[in-house]
Amino acid sequence: MMENSKWVATDCTICYHSCGMNVLVEGGRITKVEGLKDHPLNHGWLCPKGEKAIEMVYHPDRLKYPQKKVNGKWMRLTWDDALSEIGDKLQRMKKDFGPEILSIFSGSIGVENFEMMELAQRFKGAFGTPNFISVEGICYRMRIRARQMTFGKYPVEEKDTKLYVLWGHNPEQSDFPLNLAIQENLPKGSKIVVIDPKRISLAEKAEMFLPIRPGTDGALALAMMHVIIKENLYDHEFVEKWTHGFDKLVPHIEPYTPEWAEKITWIPAGDIRKLARLFAKAESASIFQGTNTQDQTANGTQNSRAFAVLQIITGNINNPGGWVISPRLSLTGLGINTESTPIGAEDYSLFYEIWGRKSPYGQVMCFPESVPNVIKALIVTGGNPVVSMPDSNAFREAMKKLELLVVLDLFMTETADLAHYVLPGCTHLEKNGLAYSYNVCHGMPYLMLRKKAIEPLYECKSEFSFWKALANKMGMGEVFPWESDEEVVELELKPSGLSYKELKEDKIAGAYYMMKQYGMDAHVTKGFSTPSKKIEIYSDTFEKAGFDPLPTYREPDQSPLNKELFAKYPLILTTGARILYYTHGQHRNVKDLNKKCPEPFAEIHPGTAGKYGVKDGDPIVVESNRGKIKVKALLTKDMAEGVVSIPHGWPGEGNVNLLTDLQLREPIMGYPQMKSQLCSIHKA
Ligand SMILES: Nc1nc2c(c(=O)[nH]1)N[C@H]1C(S)=C(S)[C@@H](COP(=O)(O)OP(=O)(O)OC[C@H]3O[C@@H](n4cnc5c(=O)[nH]c(N)nc54)[C@H](O)[C@@H]3O)O[C@H]1N2
Ligand SMILES: Nc1nc2c(c(=O)[nH]1)N[C@H]1C(S)=C(S)[C@@H](COP(=O)(O)OP(=O)(O)OC[C@H]3O[C@@H](n4cnc5c(=O)[nH]c(N)nc54)[C@H](O)[C@@H]3O)O[C@H]1N2
Ligand code: SF4
Ligand SMILES: [Mo]
Fold first, then answer.
1. Is 642 touching ligand 2 by the criterion CB < 6 Å?
2. Ordered DSSP codes for 228-279
């Protein structure tokens, strides 16, 4: 090793899993990255994206300095001028129209990137606007809400279980830590069930593979309940002792027979019975509902409720290998609330508030319709909504109507390209922070410091430096009193009992701040934090809000049952299956990753493609009621017939969100139906 070299143990935020990463810095430059051996999520491994971190950090296309658009052209300016101009404009707009005109959007990078979210929420509160929006309006928050309403708290799937039910979830592509756990547990006797329109490669090792019609998972879940109750396979003791409303569930599931579900889901009734028995009799079982796959359907919230009920009636709650309510830490929150409510709070009240617990998020789906009457300015940090949100054209048109669009990113994205100001952001290896990935990392009560390996490149700024500097310019400096991002993390950490010094110098790979608690002891005296103090199979909260208090099924709004529409668009479109080499719209500029998957594509069964004269590798046009895109046909017998599956994230004519529809929403939380639309194909 060179004399002026050091290893820095930090986390990887190239996707939200926050694996442990060891970074070698020689002469001020990163020369090597490897997985951190002591980290409980990745045990020394990195996925292909993590392995390419150096190429991302030193990519020649990184944004290097602030730019402003003048007469359609980008012009370089100083940070000082950029922030003065942005600050002045925001103050003027606030004076003329009120603070609500400002919205802040944070992308998936912000979901577990505590500082990115929290500091943005601090700025929005200090400015006085409620309109913080994020990917939570289309991803994950729905299941959190549904589980909170059922259990009072959010239980998480255990990553070590006897039966993995991969229900629209493909860990080989999207969930590297879970995939490692599965590979470790299969030789020890764990089993897998795959419910997916595609025979994903894990299906080869599965006990059962059930190719389902996209968007119909709720019907399958209800039929499983039917079998488990009718065949008396449920956990009587658990149900009696801990739950509310089982007596109402029994007559409710009567009509949901496997034969009823077979017609809807394409899964034979016999297989549904077999699956229900396998699930109910497993020593432990955990449903891994696709992280957004189940959310983004017409029945999303009720799907999440149905999965919860399946875990409950089989007693797979708080047992090793089930869903566990881990002791969870409340870190010091930095967000500032406002009295006023954000966009979408009225239409999707359960997304916004339950039992007085308000969320800091507006519903991002309401953004395009809110511009320009409600929202006139937008700051985007760590997101690319023009590519990632449904109906890219609607988002693009809304962006064009803004009086001020500011984007802080690493690269010139399609969203950044529409902005008035583009500002250069730091990668995770250029800033300090806290790695806290409780939800998406299977409920591990684990914390680790994100440690700056190198100084920010070029004129790049971290989120902390950006918000602090902008607040200073606007006379709100007192809101960000900290001198450094390390001070921020120190404050956040306080409730954990772990100190910054301890984590920086001693526990460099992180530490558990609590231990998991199995069993129900914690609930014996106080019960659950729900209105009935029990686990709510029947939810009065849903009923009061005007929704079904027991899980139900709703057909996709664009369905083959709609004969007229189906005649025009005779194929089922599901979008956004993950690709291991990319995070959403990112990393297509990383050469080695791009080589693995160079072009946008649509996966189609050869039998289906043949009907339209489409051969493997043909360029095709895919059309929906919202638009057309051009992609390459990838024929595979692994895809269910009649289904077209297209990943998201490509810019330009391969962007599948030119096909998705902002108006096709799930009625309870307003999520888009990105897994179950209709489309047609023809050769380009
Ligand atoms: N490499 C990589 N990893 C990622 C991400 C990324 O962009 N790249 N994104 C991260 C984020 S933000 C999220 S939300 C998660 C998403 O994670 P998930 O939603 O779990 O997505 P996948 O793991 O791709 O699994 C989706 C699977 O569902 C199948 N499917 C499609 N429609 C349906 C349906 O209607 N029903 C059922 N049962 N199956 C269906 C697809 O064929 C696919 O195999 O991934 C995270 N991890
Ligand atoms: N059709 C369809 N669309 C989908 C999905 C789907 O399944 N189907 N999935 C949806 C889901 S679940 C999600 S979560 C969204 C994700 O949507 P987004 O979060 O908007 O997508 P990304 O492309 O990951 O955008 C992240 C941006 O942050 C930048 N960035 C990375 N690191 C940093 C940093 O440290 N600081 C700053 N300031 N910027 C940084 C990247 O360069 C990138 O431009 O996509 C959604 N879109
Ligand atoms: S899974 Fe995500 S966090 Fe882990 S190494 Fe890969 S990109 Fe990094
Ligand atoms: Mo997501």
1. no
2. HHHTT-S-HHHHHHHEE-HHHHHHHTTT--HHHHHHHHS--HHHHHHHHHHH
